[in-house]
Write a structure and sequence with these properties.
The radius of gyration is 22 Å and the shape is flat. The chain folds into two domains: 123 residues, Tetratricopeptide repeat domain (Serine Threonine Protein Phosphatase 5, Tetratricopeptide repeat); 89 residues. About 11% of the residues have low confidence. With 236 residues, it is an all-alpha fold. The chain has eight helices and no strands. α1 packs antiparallel against α2, α2 packs antiparallel against α3 and α7 runs antiparallel to α8.
Length: 236
């Protein structure tokens, strides 16, 4: 599997505040960005909006301060936690960013799956930025389980798998050059390297195939549901 392009960019501000219905307007841009959501919790709503405004202006420290202030009103609000992760990432505080995305993903219970997938996708990007491919792979997997149609997560998963394979190859080369000159051992290692590459490639392809199949199944279920709804309308 060849993945030469850079990782898909992390997600950015999600303006477009809806009413109390917990519906998001997701806008894909080139950077991290916070969610905005109308809520009956007026105490944190205005503070969150102020944080989003500061974020758009590039004042990430003020944005983080606003999100932290909003969090004092509702500590377990996944929107606030997600926004804190966005601002912290911009301030290069990867540890806080990762923790916020982890908490947001764990608390996110919206039925559409996309909200949790957004947090998991950004969580994967915090890991990938530090070269933690194993953790990044797991985050992208979980993001795709929540939203199999996420092309960016699929791309970054393939990239992380490729980086994992390259890292393994580099480790094998270092071991090979460490002074072990036994010809038999070298042949065995060469065979092991080949098997490892093949295994990684098979793993990458099987994962991507599985997500494509799940996406197709979801589309088929949606088509069937629409047909049933149309039949019900005719019966009425």
């Amino acid at each position: 599997m060849t993945v030469e392009s850079p990782p898909s960019k992390v997600r950015s501000p999600k303006p477009g505040i809806k009413k109390i219905s917990f519906i998001f307007l997701f806008l894909m841009t080139s950077n991290f960005g916070p969610w905005t959501l109308d809520s009956c919790a007026v105490g944190w709503k205005s503070t969150t909006r102020r944080g989003v405004d500061n974020y758009k202006k590039g004042d990430y420290q003020s944005a983080l301060d606003s999100f932290e202030e909003a969090g004092k009103t509702d500590e377990k609000n996944p929107t606030i936690l997600y926004n804190k992760g966005c601002a912290a990432y911009k301030l290069q505080d990867i540890g806080q960013s990762r923790q916020s995305f982890q908490e947001a993903a764990g608390l996110e219970t919206r039925n559409d799956g996309n909200s949790r997938a957004e947090a998991l996708y950004n969580l994967g990007n915090t890991y990938l930025s530090e070269g933690k491919t194993k953790e990044a792979i797991e985050s992208y997997k979980q993001a795709l389980l929540s939203n199999p149609k996420d092309a960016d997560a699929r791309h970054n998963l393939a990239l992380a798998l490729k980086q994992k394979e390259e890292k393994q190859q580099k480790q094998n080369e270092q071991q090979k050059n460490s002074g072990q000159k036994n010809e038999n051992n070298s042949q065995e290692k060469s065979q092991d390297n080949k098997q490892s590459r093949e295994q990684n490639q098979q793993e990458s392809q099987s994962l991507l195939d599985a997500y494509e199949q799940e996406e197709a199944r979801q589309a088929q279920r949606m088509k069937k549901r629409r047909a049933q709804e149309q039949t019900a309308e005719y019966d009425w």
